[in-house]
């Protein structure tokens, strides 16, 4: 009988599942070109390969669980940041900064890796729905600013965010990149 490391079996299982998800994320960040196998994930989490099968039936099952945990966590992060933004121009600034922060923290690379290595047929729709949910507040903020072409402006802002993301991935300073993107976005927001 395995040793239970928590007050209840449910807490024990939850903690082990979380440890496996964390281990998978760590391995994905270390080797973004390949999906980690269950044995490697188990070793990283301090569990045997056979123990991992009590939680996930396959690598794809594990990676799908990573997606199902990661995307809502990112959405909650954005929602909390938007809640502190008093006006539409501030919501646009939040959108830019939070997207760049995800890149600086390595989560953007994780998202790209997940999209690449998860072959489950529902990752593409989940990813598209997540992206649409992230862009919706930007579109609403642009509408509140009476932007004549909010979809075009959102695409242009996303192009600046993508350029900033590339600079961050190349090693540029987070604050410097945010300031650079802000120098281009702020004059538009200040006029609106």
Fold and architecture overview:
The chain has helices spanning 9-30, 38-45, 49-52, 59-83, 88-104, 107-117, 123-144, 150-169, 174-191. It has 2 domains: 1-56, Arc Repressor Mutant, subunit A (Orthogonal Bundle), CATH 1.10.10; 58-191, Tetracycline Repressor, domain 2. With 192 residues, the protein is mainly alpha-helical.
Core attributes:
Arc Repressor Mutant, subunit A, 192 residues, mainly alpha, Tetracycline Repressor, domain 2, 0% strand, 2 domains
Tell me about the biggest sheet? none
Give the overall average pLDDT: 86
CATH topology of the largest domain: Tetracycline Repressor, domain 2
What fraction of the residues are assigned to beta strands by DSSP? under 5%
List how many beta strands DSSP finds: 0
Low-confidence residue ranges? none
What class would the helix/strand composition place it in?
A: mainly alpha
Using only CA atoms, what is the Rg?
20 Å
Shape: elongated
Tally of alpha and pi helices: 9
Q: Could you spell the SSE succession in H and E letters?
A: HHHHHHHHH
Tell me the distance between the termini.
Answer: 65 Å
The total domain count is 2
Helical content, roughly? over 70%
Q: Judging by the overall fold, what is the CATH architecture of the largest domain?
A: Orthogonal Bundle
């Amino acid at each position: 009988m395995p040793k239970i490391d928590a007050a209840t079996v449910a807490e024990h299982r939850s903690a082990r599942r979380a440890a496996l998800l964390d281990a998978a994320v760590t391995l994905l960040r270390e080797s973004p070109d390949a999906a980690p196998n269950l044995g490697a994930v188990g070793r990283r989490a301090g569990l045997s390969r056979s123990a991992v099968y009590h939680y996930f039936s396959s690598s794809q099952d594990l990676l799908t669980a990573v997606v199902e945990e990661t995307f809502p966590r990112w959405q909650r992060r954005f929602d909390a940041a938007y809640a502190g933004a008093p006006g539409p121009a501030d919501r646009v600034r939040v959108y830019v900064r939070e997207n760049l922060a995800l890149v600086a923290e390595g989560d953007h690379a994780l998202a790209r890796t997940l999209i690449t290595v998860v072959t489950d047929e529902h990752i593409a729709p989940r990813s598209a729905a997540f992206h649409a949910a992230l862009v919706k507040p930007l579109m609403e903020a642009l509408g509140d600013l009476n932007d004549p072409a909010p979809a075009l402006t959102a695409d242009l802002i996303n192009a600046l965010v993508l350029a900033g993301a590339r600079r961050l991935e190349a090693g540029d300073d987070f604050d410097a990149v945010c300031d650079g993107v802000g120098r281009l976005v702020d004059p538009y927001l200040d006029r609106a």
